Amino acid sequence: MTDTLVQNTPTANDETWWRQASVYQIYPRSFADANGDGLGDLPGITERVPYLASLGIEAVWLSPFYPSALADGGYDVDDYRDVDPRLGTLDDFAALVQALHAAGIRVIVDVVPNHTSNRHEWFREALAAPKGSPARDRYIFRDGTGPDGAEAPADWISIFGGPAWTAVGDGQWYLHSFAKEQPDLNWANREVRDDFLTTLRFWSDRGVDGFRIDVAHGLAKDLGETLPTWSELAEMPKDGTHPLWDRDDVHEIYAEWRKVFDEYTPARTAVAEAWVPAHRRARYASAEGLGQAFNFDLLEADFDAGQFRTIIEFNLGLAEQSGSSTTWVFSNHDVVRHATRYALPARNGGTDKQGSAWLLAGGSQDALDRPLGLRRARAATMLELALPGSAYLYQGEELGLHEVGDIADADRQDPAFFRNPGVDVGRDGCRVPLPWTRSGPSFGFGPDGSHLPQPAWFAESSVEAEDADPDSTLNLYRKALGLRGQLQSEEQLEWLETGRDDVLAFRRPNGWTSVTVFGDEPYTLPAGELLLASAPVVDGALPGVGTAWLRS
User: Fold this and answer.
1) How much is the pLDDT for 520?
2) Which of 384, 350, 343 is nearest to 476 (CA)?
3) Which one of the listed residues 72, 92, 181, 214 is annotated catalytic?
4) By C-alpha distance, which of 62, 80, 64 is closest to 72?
5) Potential cystine with 375: which of 58, 123, 334, 545 (Cβ 3.0-4.6 Å)?
6) In this model, does residue 7 exceed pLDDT 50?
C-alpha cells in the first residue's frame, strides 16, 4: 500500500533554480578571517570558494555583513547598502559574488527590515528631532505614561528579554521588539517602504540572486490609541489581526517587493523567516509574495519516525497549496546545532527550545551522547537531502560540529545572554568560528585568534582532519550533495511500506529511494543499487540510526 504526495513540477530553467536548491548559510564573522583580526570577513569567504564548490551546493546565504555595532551579531544594521569595514568593502563583495558565480554558486543575502540599528542615520536624526516630526515617524515612538512620561507606554517585553520600550529623554519612548539597539521601523511610512525597495534593487544590481527576510512576520503593526498589556497581547488570536505579528497587511509590503524581484531576469528569489502557525506560512511563500518560507518543523522535532512523517506530509501539502516548494532546516545561526540536540534526551512534546536546559546547566560535552547525536544528525541530513524542496544547511554541520556550550560568561556576545541572565545563555555556541586545520592559533580560521573561543576538540572536527577520511561527515555531505544534484527529479515522493514504525522509506519518481532507521535494530534494505549510506550496510542490512539511498 502506497500513497503519493505531489508538489508542482519545476521546469529546468534559471527561474526555478531555488525550488530544490541546496543552500549553505554562512555567518560571515565566523567563517574565515583573511586579515587576522579575529573576525571573519568577505575576502576570507572568497578564499574558501573552492571549498564551497567541493561541497556541491547550489547557493550561499550570507548572514548580515553590513556596518553594525554587533549588538545582535550584525542584525542591528547601520547602513543597508554598504559593507562593515571590518568585513571588507563593496569591491570585496563584488569579488565574492564574481567568484561564487564563476563556481556555479548563487548568492542570497540577508535583509533585516523589522528594525534598524540605533546608529542608523535615520534613528540618529529621529533622536535629534522633536516628537511628532517626520524623522520620528519612520520609527514607532509613543508618549510615556505617568508624570512627564517617565513610565513606558506599555509593559511589553522584548524577544531578548527586558522592556520593549526605551525612553529618549523628552517624554517619548521607542519600540524595539528585540534589543534596545534595534528600534522597530514604522512600515506604515511610505518613505520606509520606498527605501527598502531601493535596497533590494541595490543588491540585485550587484548580482545578488535572492534574499532571506529576517523577521518577515513582524513588519506591519497596528498599535491603536490605547496599547494592550503584555498579557492581553499574549491572549490575542493569531489570525492576521494581532497588533504586532503576522498581520494580513504585511503581504501588501511583499507584493511590492515581488514587483521589484520580477524586474530582473531571472527573477530574484526570497525566503521568509516567519515564525507563524504552520497554516499561515503559505501566504509568505506565494508567487505574489516572497516565493518561499522557512519550515522549521523538522528542526523542532525529536528524532522520531512518526513526527518526521507527519511533518513531511503536512509541509509538502502546504507547498502544493502555495505553489511554492517547501524548505527543510535542521541547524542555523539561532539554534543549538542538531548533532548536539540529537545527543540529548527527547523533548517528548516539550515546548522549550531543544538544548536550552543543557546550555543553562553549563553546556558540558560530557552530558552528551556525542556518537549517537552525530549518527542521528548524519541520518537526518541524508533524509532531508532526499526530500523534494530546498535544503538549507548551516556552516559547520558538514563537519558534524557539536554546539560549543561551555563558553565562559566573559567571552559571550549574544544580547540574549545579557538581557536574560539565568534564563537564556544565547546563541554564541553555534557561532564559534569554524576549524579549518588541526592546529594553529584559531584552527586555520585566520592567522591569529578568533572572536569566540574554540574548544580543543575542534581539532579532530576540522576540515583538514575530515578531508582525508572517506567516512567523515564532511565527505558524507559531499557525496550526498553530489548525488542529490544528479538524482533530483519532480517534486513528488511515494511512501513505501516498511513493516516497522521506526523506519521511514520513500521513493522519488526516478527510482531514487531513501530509507531511514530511527530505532536501534537493523533493517533489511529493499532491492536496488546502494548509492550511499550514513552508516555501514552489512549483508544488505542498514544498522539502527542510519539512512541509505538506493536506485532501482
Assistant:
1) 97
2) 384
3) 214
4) 64
5) 545
6) no
